[in-house]
Amino acid sequence: MKNDNKYEERIICFIDILGFKTKIDSTIDKEDDIVENINKINELLLLTRKELDIEGNMKFSKSKIATQFSDSIVISFLAKEEGEIIYTLLDILTLIMKCVMKGFLIRGGITLGKIIHNDKFIFGPGMNIAYELESEVANYPRVILDNTIIEKAKECPFKYGNSRSEEESIMGIVSIDTDNMYYIDYINKAQQTLNYHDFDMPQYIERIKSIILENQKSKSISIKNKTDWLINKYNNFVESTIEKDNLCKLRKEGEL
User: Fold this and answer.
1) pLDDT tens digits for 171-198?
2) 256 C-beta neighbours (distance < 10 Å), count
3) Which H or E run contains 193?
4) CB 79 within 8 A of CB 94
5) CA distances in angstroms from 163 to 77, 97, 155, listed in the order given
6) Within a 13 Å sphere around the CA of 101, how many CA atoms are in the beta-carbon half?
């Protein structure tokens, strides 16, 4: 019988929707509700519930649990579950891309740690680490994962795979950033997922561009710093595809 008062070693994903407070503020004008903007928030939250299977069906996982509160989402599953890391990374990549198409960006942290996660409680030292990764280390609109995730994936590959194939699959989703952190690369490694969901790559990249341009209007230094990171990723993509697509580089504020 499972002891609900004992920690389990689980992979923990803490995800946050950036700019959610601003979107909530836009749902009311003085004392009047702005129904159109409320509907957009509803659609976004329903999207996250659907993509991450928060209703609790979890057809393809034996141990995964997902909990949503406001704009934050926690996903966890037993670290020993075969192949589940790659499946969850793909789910998060898909969620990021669909949120981009709706004008939202995602930040998050993924780690391995001890936690109690059930339909009543979420707590434990692993939860603290995942939250700190999201709030203090990720910094930019990216979902980062520490080295323990890739090593654990190699230890628990899909039953028809091996450690090498599992690592190769993960590196088809993540990249190493300038600070040596692994992150889910929703720009340079988005093409295959876009094809699967019948998204158009130029349309997707233009949507990222429109988010950047909108964020550049903000008076918040924090938002502008996050936007500068995204501009760099966008421009690197443009430089690698400039001969194939009619894309132009973006400038950071203050640049000539």
Assistant:
1) 999 999 999 999 999 999 887 777 666 6
2) 3
3) helix 191-196
4) no
5) 19, 27, 6
6) 18
pTM of the model: 0.86
Q: Are 100 and 201 in contact (CB under 8 A)?
A: no
Beta carbons within 10 angstroms of residue 194's beta carbon: 17
Residue 118: CB atoms within 10 A of its CB come to 12
Per-residue tokens: 55: 């209703």
Alpha carbons 173 and 13: distance in angstroms, whole number: 16
Task: Report the distance separating Cα 97 and Cα 102, nearest Å.
Answer: 9
Q: Residue 216 is encoded by which pair of tokens? A: 């550049």
**110-143 tens-digit pLDDT:** 999 999 998 888 999 999 999 999 999 999 999 9
The sign of the dihedral angle between the CA atoms of 139, 140, 145, 147 is: negative
- How many degrees, rounded to 5, is the angle at CA 130 between CA 126 and CA 134? 170
